[in-house]
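Subject: for your reference before the review

Hello V.,

The reviewers asked for a structural picture of the protein, and I figured it would be easier to keep everything in one thread rather than splitting it across files. Below is the amino acid sequence we used in the manuscript, unchanged from the supplementary table.
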Amino acid sequence: MFRPLTVAIGLRYTRAKRRNHFISFISVVSIIGLVLGVMALITVLSVMNGFERELRERILGMASHATIQDADGGLQDWKSLQQRVTDIDKRVLAAAPYVQGEAMLSARGHISGGLIRGIEPEAEEQVAQVGEHMTQGRLSALEPGRYRIVLGRELAAQLRVRPGDSVILMAPQASVSPAGVMPRMRRFEVAGLFEVGMYEYDRGTAFIHLDDARAVFQTGEGVTGLRLRVDDMMRAGVISRDVAGELGGLFRVQDWTRQHANLFRAIQMEKMVMFIILSLIVAVAAFNIVSTLIMLVTDKQGDIAILRTLGLSPAGVMVVFVVQGVVIGTIGILLGSAAGVALAMNIDVVVPFIERVAGIEFLAADVYYISDLPSELRASDVVRVAGLGFLLTVLATLFPAWRAARTQPAEALRYD
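And here is what came back from the structure prediction:
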């Protein structure tokens, strides 16, 4: 059926000048529609990939790839366990101990709750990126026995403090004194501020040294758990579970994808919905080819009849018009893919230009923590969008080509 003759005729019809200029106009409109639809779909998917990457990096700026905790409570023999974890599995690049608890922070008449995390600064730098997000001070300023604290920027603003000021930390663990049972309180000096760009962390997290945290939360020599950094963060769950199994005993394992499962599930759902919605634009543009080919079939009734009388089969006639529709669609898809790739790769230049020309700001820095439109172009998205457009184009050509194949030569030539 797909013989060189039928393909050649289809390509010849595609290049030929139209007697009906309206058909040419509809063909151009179909191509433009495909270009815009494919370009929009590739660009939107790339921007959503960029947002997902930004959120992942900001989350991992505070959260480790995985954590291991004892099923019965805190880890006691954590120093030997820390060494064993990196020796057992070479996929584990680093492990850092931490003590975590909730407490109240008070300063200058202002009070706020927060998640207090006790860390060893050098070890913590190997599993997270907190030091890279310090806006004032250094994480290394946390020294044992000095009782210093590093606050999130929003938390510091709530307490009206800055580096050098003091805050009172009130732990839920009680102390017995002559006056009765009192909450444990300790004065800390603000050693620095950090900002990761996520309100959850900037507003509710503070860091102190591991030894100070053990004294405040009365954990003795134990810690809450170990934070792990692995060589492939997308397989953090599998790696951490393998490590826990090889350690023996009962451990509770969590990875970053489970800790933030709802957030990334929502992003994936949004990407799927946006793909479906924007695919409808591509579908509408592709099915404009139907009207183009139907009018072309009507215009070429005489030519079809002559081809049939010369021996061209109905299947061959179908191929002629399928080739025309596929050529139109392929041109639109290729141009749209090229435009989409170019726009996605230069979104950081195009958006600021539009903002300057229009005098608007899409993502205000004082409202949104991600104030720029990030973009991450993936070859798989381009192939998927182009493949979808091509499939819709082929489907759109079938009905007009089938109508052309049913043309009866005697009826078509009766009045010619």
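For the response letter, the relevant points are probably these. The chain has 15 helices and ten strands. The two ends are 29 Å apart (CA to CA).

Happy to draft the paragraph if you're swamped.

O.
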